[in-house]
Amino acid sequence: AIILGLESSCDETAAALVTSDRRILAHALAGQAEAHAPFGGVVPEIAARAHVDKLMPLIEQALADSGVTLSDVDAIAATAGPGLIGGVMVGLVTGKALAHATGKPLIAVNHLEGHALSPRLADPDLAFPYLLLLVSGGHCQLLLVEGVDRYRRLATTIDDAAGEAFDKSAKLLGLPYPGGPELEKLAATGDAASVPLPRPLLGSSEPHFSFAGLKSAVARAVHSGEHRPQDIAAAFQQAVVDCLIDRTGRAIKRAPGATALVVAGGVAANGSIRAALTGLAAHYGLPFVAPPMWLCTDNAAMIAWAGAERFAAGLTDTLDVPARPRWPLDPDAETVRGAGV
Ligand code: ATP
Ligand code: MG
Ligand code: FE
Question: Which listed ligand is nearest to 137 at the C-alpha?
């Protein structure tokens, strides 16, 4: 089957055509970094307007690039949440309109399911169940991915997400938005050992993550004027790596059935984090799977692929499906304390 995927939940507008046998026929993407940069973060109203301007041209571009017409498409998958509600509505309403006009089924995709299943687009051998570290701008979770639509959340952050910590720390260091990749570049030239920073919840018996205290320590280190920015960046990145490895190691010991350790989400584009997770997986004798960098940050190929997986499972939606600003993957999510849902 051929699936058209649409993504508009944050500050990337994207359209892609992906087949159920993992061929990426086309993927078109427009970022909005310049529009938001003067404000140091994503402005929801600016984002929603940009999605309105860019989505239809990107859909047309993806169709032209692939040589596929709308009548060749078998289903239309659109992100229906979680995310900035204005943007989510632009993509979902566009998907509904296309589905209505063509008579093709609509698939409402959870953006997090897009991230969670993206490693299976890149790696045909990745089988359920796998242990997933989902690290993105809004989320930091460990999930047992048991199947399509079957997620068991083992841990979440009790305050900031990992990407949020990268972005806030980058801002404190005076780096331009979006800060994560900029901080990684700066860290490459620094000495992590020269700035002592905390590692919240390291070794804790509870499963969760915490990054707020680390971010506050970065603020103190910056304001003290005693350290070089590259050293603070390197120390911050090392602290995040240590926390992620500690928490993920704890989860591996409690998920004996997992076929692989998998990482996904925008922060999975970070080279130090990928390298450390590679070592951790090897230590426990697990295969390590990470999607290519471009598939880690927001894109529509992962939404089309999640759509393909749901379509194969017979999971389609009606045109009255709602846009959801909050939408946990795990049905038991409300019982886990803290934010990060
Ligand atoms: P969510 O998926 O939780 O709704 P989002 O869609 O905004 O949030 P993603 O696009 O998946 O998040 O990821 C963006 C995040 O990834 C940002 O916080 C960004 O700083 C971070 N990021 C991207 N590249 C890197 C990198 N190389 N190192 C560290 N962080 C990075
Ligand atoms: Mg983004
Ligand atoms: Fe995302």
Answer: 1
CA-wise closest residue to 255 among 291, 304, 183, 207: 207
ipTM of the complex: 0.98
- 3-class DSSP string for 1-70: CEEEEEECCCCEEEEEEEECCCCEEEEEEEECHHHHHHHCCCCHHHHHHHHHHHHHHHHHHHHHHHCCCH
Q: pLDDT per residue over 40-87, tens digit each?
A: 889 999 999 999 999 999 999 999 999 999 999 999 999 999 999 999
pLDDT of residue 227 exceeding 90 = yes
Q: How far is the CA of 287 from the centre of ligand 1 (A)?
A: 24
Indicate which atom in ligand 1 lies nearest the CA of residue 178: 20
227 is in an annotated binding site: no
Report in angstroms the alpha-carbon separations of 170 from 7, 36, 107, 154, 248. 26, 15, 36, 29, 24
Residue nearest to atom 8 of ligand 1 (CA): 137
Tally Cβ neighbours within 10 Å of residue 285: 7
Of the bound ligands, which one is closest to the alpha carbon of residue 50? 2
**Residue 101 pLDDT > 60:** yes
